[in-house]
Amino acid sequence: MNLDLFTVAPGEKPLDNMKAACGFAGIFKEIGVIGDSLSSGEFESHDQEGNTLYHDMYEYSWPAVLERLTGTVYRNYSRGGMTAKEYLESWADRNGFWQWNQAYIIALGNNDIFGANQPAGSAADIYPEDPAANPDTFLGDMGRIVSRLKTMEKDARIFLVSMQRRGEERADATICAIADEMKKMCGLYSYTYLIDMAHDGPAYDEEMRKTFAMGGHPNAMGYYVYAMMIGNYMDYIIRENPRDFFEMPFIGKGLKNKDIACNPGE
């Protein structure tokens, strides 16, 4: 048996090795997902007048696909139109969504930046030990979310997901710049990683939408493809940082293994 199949090969990129069951993404017992319409499985229909109607169909969302593929429980805290600001100020509290999980995936930004026109800010806006000091920017709000999750479980593994490029020059430059700041943000917290769909994922452009979209949102195949990308990117991160995940079953249990000489995620 070739153990190299379970490590990162020299020169391998995050989405080079697409596994049907998403590899080590299946080591988690439970994951919470904070996101917008892409995470809630939103589909578009039209009424008799041709008006577009929007439907969150969670059973078709990429977290639901990953739950079926990996056996991990995915708790979906998302909703179409969600922003980091709304999640912080009302949505999570109103619905009791500040819940303990071993890991969290946070996939926000499109509505914040391109809908609400909120300033993106930068990683310099984030004060992990004093999140109330974060300014009212997208990155500042993202920092407040992560800081809140870390008060619930300091050892939670947190995966931030950057937006996909759109094949539009100005928007893509903004998306990539925000992804770069999110990468810096990961360095401010323990066990926090970037699923960099901006730089490593395909552009969600006109060509991709021909097969994988139904209006402005993915179709069922599109959500499946996105699930495969998220799950396999997680597998890559785990293969690249295996020691960070040795004690994953001990999260929240107060258990340690003496052979882990240091805490590599901090």
Mean pLDDT: 96
Oligomer state of the chains in this structure: single chain
Helix content: 25-40%
What distance lies between the first and last C-alpha atoms, to the nearest angstrom?
Answer: 33 Å
Specify the number of helices.
9
- What is the domain tally? 1
**Roughly how many Å is the radius of gyration?**
18 Å
Q: Uncertain spans, ≥5 residues at pLDDT below 50?
A: none
In total, how many beta strands? Answer: 9
Could you state the CATH homologous superfamily? SGNH hydrolase
CATH class: Alpha Beta
Q: Would you tell me the structural class of the helices and strands?
A: alpha/beta
The major pleated sheet works out as: 5 strands, parallel
The CATH topology assignment is Rossmann fold
Task: Identify the strand order in the major beta sheet.
Answer: 4-1-5-6-7
Order of helices and strands: EHEEHEHEHHEHEHHEEH
Shape: globular
Beta-strand percentage? Answer: 5-15%
